[in-house]
Amino acid sequence: MTSTQSSQSSQPKISHNMAAVNGRKQTFWVPEIASYFVAGGAAGAASRTVVSPLERLKIIQQVQPQTSDGQYKGVWRSLVRMWKEEGFKGFMRGNGINCLRIVPYSAVQFTTYEQLKKWFTAYGTKELDTPKRLASGALAGITSVCATYPLDLVRSRLSIATATIPLQPKQALPSSSVMTVSGAKQALASAYHTSSGSLDQTVSKRAELTMVGMTLKVMREEGGVPGLYRGLVTTAVGVAPYVGINFATYEALRGVMTPPGKNNVVRKLACGALAGSISQTLTYPFDVLRRKMQVTGMVNGGLGYHYNGAFDALRSIIRTEGLRGLYRGLWPNLLKVAPSIATSFFTYELVKELLVTP
User: 159: closest CA among 277, 18, 52?
Assistant: First the structure.
């Protein structure tokens, strides 16, 4: 065969290969990414709604002051108190904004993770090992946090806005605070709706207990748009290892617990529950710091603390509460994280399979 004949015979093969590549790109960039995005959003909404009462209780316990009376103590007792004071709405308080946040957050996170896995493995030509899974998860977590952080901050504010958290006495305030107890009550009045037993009267405007109202309040009182990003760095630093460990642990457990022929619902849920519990426990102090930073502008003086950055918050918590202060709210968080992550991964895989199956 001559070189001309060889060249001519190879042209159809090249054209065929290019067509196949173009076909894969077209399929990759449209339906596949869309399936990641939709499945990720559905997974986030389902997982957060299932554990909404425990999520709110965790936030309250993280930010409440260390006073002897009026605290939310114990998971069951606190949930009963929440039900008596606010009913079913109390359980779901902040869940609307949480779902509004978690849908794009989870969608971006899962989509970014899937894309990074392909990028790190050069689209299947290299092995996806544990370090690459950790890196993919960490970068996916940072991306999703930066994309949806203002919604997370507003959700945190709404979650605690109606809790009957008591004021600390004047002597309990740190030396850096210049507010009196009466001033603290006035500041708290603009942010909280409490029962008549904890304050003399209802002190919060109903308009501020909505997503838009709380967003405008933060912007008005805390420096405009930058106020919506309070604690972003701390959150990103905490979320990166959490998401990385979460994804890496889940895929490692799935390889062990769901071998061919044993890929049932219970095993899938167990993988997600274990992965979430492990990753959350290892990175929980970052979550406490994140909540403290998110609400410090809202409760300055009212709950007795104000921090000038994440390191100041860390030093203050360890100094006043010890290392235990970094794990406040861990128990209700562990109770919620297992069903939450299990629901998230299971819903993601289920919806993705439904979308990509012909």
Answer: 52
The amino acid that residue 75 corresponds to is V
Give the whole-angstrom CA distance, residue 186 versus residue 205. 13
Four-point Cα dihedral 226, 228, 231, 235, nearest 10? -120
SS3 content of the chain, % helix, strand, coil (to 5): 75, 0, 25
Q: Chain centroid to CA 227: how far?
A: 19
Question: pLDDT by residue (tens digit) across 53-90?
Answer: 887 887 777 777 766 566 777 778 888 888 888 888 87
HSE, side-chain direction, 13 A CA sphere, residue 117: 17
**Entry pTM:** 0.66
Contact 65, 319 (CB under 8 A): no
Residue 289 near residue 234 (C-beta atoms within 8 A) = yes
Q: Quick one: which of 47, 242, 82 has its CA closest to 159?
A: 82
